[in-house]
Q: What sequence folds into this?
């Protein structure tokens, strides 16, 4: 389900995505929904591939991971569900027993109800099974969770929730088959209760639930195992999101050449707030300069000129108090790219300044976003024509202010929500968080996974806005500029370490 720019809820059969060729051909960046993976399995079977052979490879891979990761385990406990995920578990249990490991199997449902490959896997598994609710953890157990996997779309049954609680209480290691049971593979949300895995083995491609929070946290280490389905079949179902990495945008990063000078590298302008709120703008400006913009100016109210001037060196300063002063500043076409919002203040001035920039490139952040909460359609209409020039960088609260109906639609994943917002706003939307999603109006979306928790600190978002602005100023397309900025922001956070501050973060930006 997605919410169109008209505000109407609609349900497309499948969201398409137009990745750059390097991304589309790289399985490391694909994300397949559980439904898409189901279509892959069906297509593989239609092509003549033996489906039980695929299950055999999957289960063997899980067993190999268990033996490799937990050689000290006294007993492997395989928890099997009623579908193909359970079938993978029965294969893994047989492989573990064949390797000489003590192995116990507990099943959720009557095995007589198993069908297809899962029934075959059960039939050839030599280990007697017990009911799932009879499992009592022992010290030295290592758990293989093969109950539901990625296809679950409803809260887990009480019997499963009880086992999850017992395993968690005993602090036993868990290997999840495909996805920890209790996680929604499409959204990454917990459906009542979910295992917290030390390691997850999935097959052919990641699912959104592996990278969206809290799913990413609950998956532990993630292993993507190739069970032999042709990549052309998997590729045909990839989308609507992928993983953010340099493969998506590196070829478009600005590359200074010998004849380059500062005016060719673009001019970024960052609007400052009043004298008591100037720091955020300076962080953005410094980050834009670090990202490669040739010139950076802070457009400041006169009452904040002294506060800004005392802290600036390479960044220039220009008094811009009102709409008349802004209009005069815009007479120079080289003033092409702007950051508005950090520390600026919420209200009519922010709205008026943003709308005055409708034919320029604009990163709208923080107060700039909140200023349009009562009527965001005015902003969206202003940037609706021509190339994508607007980049919105909301965190969860700001997103809900601009797109309340999207945020309230609980069936949508974060990828779905970002795509719906981008389509409606005619903007690139950077939906921030530990699982930041970058979405474009044309249907492209990337999920970022390299940001450390230490980035959750005051001023970090101002730095990100500045990096985006710096790349936009150099002519990088809006979607790629935003994706590159988010990735480099995450890398800078890792380089700065656990005690990072926003000021120190800027010194670790390396493009």
A:
């Amino acid at each position: 389900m997605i919410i169109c720019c008209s505000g109407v809820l609609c349900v497309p059969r499948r969201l398409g995505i137009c990745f750059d060729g390097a991304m589309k051909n790289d399985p490391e960046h694909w994300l397949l929904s559980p439904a898409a993976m189901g279509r892959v399995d069906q297509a593989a079977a239609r092509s003549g591939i033996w489906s039980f052979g695929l299950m055999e490879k999957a289960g063997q891979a899980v067993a190999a991971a268990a033996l490799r990761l937990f050689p000290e385990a006294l007993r492997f406990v395989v928890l099997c569900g009623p579908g193909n995920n359970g079938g993978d578990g029965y294969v893994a249990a047989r492989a573990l027993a064949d390797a000489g490991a003590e192995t116990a199997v507990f099943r959720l449902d009557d095995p007589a109800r198993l069908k297809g490959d899962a029934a075959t896997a059960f039939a050839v598994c030599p280990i007697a099974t017990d009911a799932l609710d009879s499992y009592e953890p022992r010290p030295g157990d290592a758990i293989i969770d093969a109950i539901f996997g990625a296809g679950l779309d409803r809260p887990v049954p009480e019997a499963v929730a009880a086992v999850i609680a017992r395993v968690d209480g005993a602090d036993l290691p868990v290997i999840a088959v495909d996805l920890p049971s209790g996680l929604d593979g499409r959204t990454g949300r917990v459906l009542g209760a979910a295992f917290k895995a030390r390691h997850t083995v999935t097959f052919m491609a990641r699912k959104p639930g592996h990278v969206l929070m809290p799913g990413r946290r609950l998956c532990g280490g993630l292993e993507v195992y190739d069970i032999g389905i042709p990549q052309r079949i998997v590729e045909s179902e990839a989308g609507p999101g992928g993983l953010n990495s340099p493969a998506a945008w590196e070829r478009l990063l600005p590359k200074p050449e010998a004849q380059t000078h500062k005016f060719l590298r673009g001019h970024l302008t960052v609007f400052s707030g009043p004298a008591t709120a100037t720091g955020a703008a300076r962080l953005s400006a410094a980050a834009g300069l670090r990202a490669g913009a040739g010139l950076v100016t802070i457009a400041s109210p006169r009452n904040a000129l002294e506060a800004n001037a005392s802290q600036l060196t390479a960044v220039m300063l220009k008094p811009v108090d009102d709409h008349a002063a802004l209009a005069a500043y815009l007479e120079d076409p080289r003033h092409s790219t702007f950051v508005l919002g950090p520390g600026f203040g919420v209200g009519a001035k922010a709205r008026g300044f943003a709308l005055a920039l409708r034919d320029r490139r604009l990163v709208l952040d923080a107060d700039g976003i909140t200023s349009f909460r009562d009527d965001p359609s005015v902003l969206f209409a202003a940037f609706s024509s021509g190339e994508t020039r607007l980049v919105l960088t909301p965190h969860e609260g700001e997103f809900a202010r601009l797109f309340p109906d999207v945020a309230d639609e609980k069936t949508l994943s974060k990828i779905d929500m970002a795509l719906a917002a981008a389509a409606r706003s005619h903007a690139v939307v950077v939906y921030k968080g530990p699982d930041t999603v970058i979405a474009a109006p044309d249907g492209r979306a990337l999920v970022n996974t390299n940001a450390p928790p230490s980035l959750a600190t005051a001023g970090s978002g101002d730095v990100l806005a500045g990096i985006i602005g710096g790349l936009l100023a150099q002519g990088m397309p809006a979607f790629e500029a935003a994706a590159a900025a988010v990735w480099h922001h995450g890398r800078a956070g890792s380089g700065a370490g656990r005690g990072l501050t926003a000021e120190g973060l800027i010194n670790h930006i390396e493009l």
Remarks:
- The mean pLDDT is 93.
